[in-house]
């Protein structure tokens, strides 16, 4: 056979003769060789692919036909197309272990045959038989199959890294037991976990991929966090730049206070000041001194004292010569701008009738008013009050002026006439209001009582009164508070007692919140990043920078301009609704007490005309009457305090 095998390919006429024969028997007769040799020669020339024949020729030339390969191995079609080593325990792998017209598996078998034979010592070298070659064919086919599975499971770059090392181990024969075991115990396509030598490789690659994926995720998360931090930082820093113009400072507070004063000065206020009049014991020098002290105080406060009016009085017709009250009193009229004020300032008011001594408060025939009481009710030495008028809003502003004078009483009518003289020429709209601010009211607050009397009479609906009441005037304080102050303070037209600052002064922020006239760093920004990360630390730095820029106010400092919503009150509206049917919720069936056989969980004995409540083991509720008399219960609480006690 070796002669024939060697001759074929060297002598074309012999090769042509073999190709001309169509069976192994004809070859056997022609060359006088055995059946195995003739079949092997026939397969080599007819069935085995040319690359495989070339590989076998090279293997035999170097090692010899007889010591390396048996004729039977070639004759059994192991190197031919359509041969499969998937038999017996490997029957499930028949398809993957079949030669499919290609020569990859067969060439790998030939290479393994050579390497396995070469590494044996001469005493152990044997020719490849059918059984040993078939087993090697299965191992090579399994190796190719599992490597293709590995190629589909891992990236190409990873496959290129590990495939060379795995193939070297396979060519050395180290992987044969694992492949044989996988072919005998699994079915195609089989998992890489079933192949021992690939299990660690795939697990290592999977772990490395997992680590790389986690690292990429961390990098991506860090990039996203950095981008979010950059976005937040831009907004927060922009907001802090905006807030720098709104940080409270003494200069800004002083400016706001100046604006408040300017606001009050620009209001349509007018003041009526009654100057001192001579008394029996008053010298001319003292009178001028008192008048000048008032005028000097007003001038130092920036008022114009050139506008005056006269109060004319009329004594009772039955007045005696002892009544030395004068018939005229000079008054000063003060306002923000006398040229533009809407008030009509009269030149004189009166004549106004003065009251008699017996009409004074506290008078009785037995105990006539003493000197002190009369001094409190004689003609005014000085009277200072102011009117305030403005559309929609009104406010009263007191001036810093120290005027130490006594006050007196003239009765209600003169005071009504004085007020009428001031408001007579005003054209009031529906939304206009007049406030009379009595800075130095007399003992019995007669300007206030005059306003109260007129309002009670249905007049002066647009007039309100305010006065600086002293401790010694507590007897009229309750009347003033109830009839004047409370009415004005709770009225719908009452303005703010301070200048309402423009709400548009609040800065326009994008990330930082603005609450109660101050910035607030949102908790959502602080909690946006995990604690301990660089981004969380940066956000905390921005929060601390904001708190340093705008410190928190003390707990006892009230916030300004906080809009407190009014308390809502109401009651349910059952219009167009259907109430629940009592019979749908409560079983009104009656059960006699002797027939009640339910096991009781608890009993609450009714007291004070309350029903007895029975709760059974299945948590059903019964209303019971264990007396012999009929009981009628009115509507009321069923489950509440003081309905009874459980036994």
UniProtKB/TrEMBL annotation:
Protein name from the UniProt record: FO synthase subunit 1
């Amino acid at each position: 056979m070796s002669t024939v095998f060697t001759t074929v390919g060297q002598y074309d006429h012999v090769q042509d003769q073999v190709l001309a024969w169509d069976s192994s028997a004809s070859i056997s007769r022609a060359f006088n060789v055995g059946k195995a040799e003739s079949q092997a020669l026939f397969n080599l020339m007819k069935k085995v692919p040319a690359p495989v024949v070339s590989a076998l020729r090279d293997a035999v030339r170097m090692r010899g036909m007889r010591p390396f390969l048996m004729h039977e191995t070639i004759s059994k079609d192991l190197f031919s197309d359509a041969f499969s080593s998937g038999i017996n325990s490997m029957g499930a792998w028949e398809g993957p272990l079949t030669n499919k017209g290609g020569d990859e598996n067969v060439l790998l078998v030939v290479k393994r045959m050579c390497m396995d034979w070469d590494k044996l010592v001469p005493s152990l070298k044997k020719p490849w038989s059918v059984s040993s070659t078939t087993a090697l064919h299965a191992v090579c086919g399994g190796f190719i199959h599992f490597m293709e599975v590995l190629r589909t499971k891992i990236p190409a770059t990873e496959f290129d890294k590990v495939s060379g090392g795995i193939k070297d181990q396979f060519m050395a024969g180290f992987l044969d037991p694992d492949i044989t075991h996988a072919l005998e115990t699994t079915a195609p396509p089989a998992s890489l976990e079933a192949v021992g030598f690939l299990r660690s490789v795939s697990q290592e690659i999977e772990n490395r991929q997992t680590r790389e994926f986690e690292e990429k995720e961390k990098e991506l998360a860090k990039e996203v966090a950095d981008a979010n931090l950059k976005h937040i930082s831009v907004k927060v820093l922009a907001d802090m730049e905006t807030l720098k113009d709104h940080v409270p400072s003494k200069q800004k507070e002083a400016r706001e206070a100046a604006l408040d004063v300017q606001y009050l000065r620009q209001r349509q206020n007018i003041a009526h000041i009654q100057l001192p009049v001579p008394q029996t014991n008053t010298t001319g020098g003292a009178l001028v001194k008192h008048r000048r002290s008032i005028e000097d105080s007003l001038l130092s406060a920036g008022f114009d004292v050139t506008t005056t009016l006269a109060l004319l009085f009329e004594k009772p017709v039955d007045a005696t010569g002892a009544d030395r009250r004068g018939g005229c009193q000079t008054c000063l009229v003060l306002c923000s701008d006398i040229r533009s004020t809407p008030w009509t300032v009269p030149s004189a008011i009166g004549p106004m009738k003065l009251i008699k001594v017996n009409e004074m408060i506290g008078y009785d025939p037995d105990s006539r008013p003493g000197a002190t009481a009369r001094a409190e009710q004689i003609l005014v030495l000085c009277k200072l009050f102011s009117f305030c008028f403005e559309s929609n809003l009104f406010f009263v502003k007191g001036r810093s002026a120290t005027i130490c004078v006594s006050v007196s009483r003239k009765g209600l009518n003169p005071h009504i006439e004085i007020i009428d003289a001031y408001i007579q020429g005003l054209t009031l709209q529906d939304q206009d209001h007049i406030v009379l601010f009595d800075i130095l009211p007399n003992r019995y607050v007669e300007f206030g009582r005059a306003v109260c009397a007129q309002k009670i009479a249905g007049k002066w609906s647009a007039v309100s009164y305010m006065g600086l009441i002293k401790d010694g005037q507590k007897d009229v304080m309750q009347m003033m508070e109830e009839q004047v102050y409370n009415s004005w303070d709770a009225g719908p037209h009452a303005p703010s007692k301070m200048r309402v600052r423009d709400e548009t002064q609040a800065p326009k922020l994008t990330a930082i919140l603005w609450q109660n006239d101050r910035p607030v760093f949102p908790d959502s920004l602080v909690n946006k990043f995990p604690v301990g990360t660089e981004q969380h630390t940066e956000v905390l730095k921005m929060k601390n920078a904001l708190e340093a820029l705008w410190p928190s106010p003390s707990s006892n400092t009230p916030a300004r301009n906080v809009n407190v919503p009014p308390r809502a009150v109401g009651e349910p509206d059952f219009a167009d609704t259907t109430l629940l049917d009592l019979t749908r919720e409560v079983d009104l069936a009656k059960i006699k007490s002797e027939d009640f056989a339910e096991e009781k969980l608890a009993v609450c004995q009714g007291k004070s005309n309350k029903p007895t409540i029975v709760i059974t083991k299945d948590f059903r509720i019964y209303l019971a009457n264990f007396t012999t008399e009929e009981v009628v219960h009115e509507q009321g609480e069923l489950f509440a305090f003081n309905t009874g006690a459980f036994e």
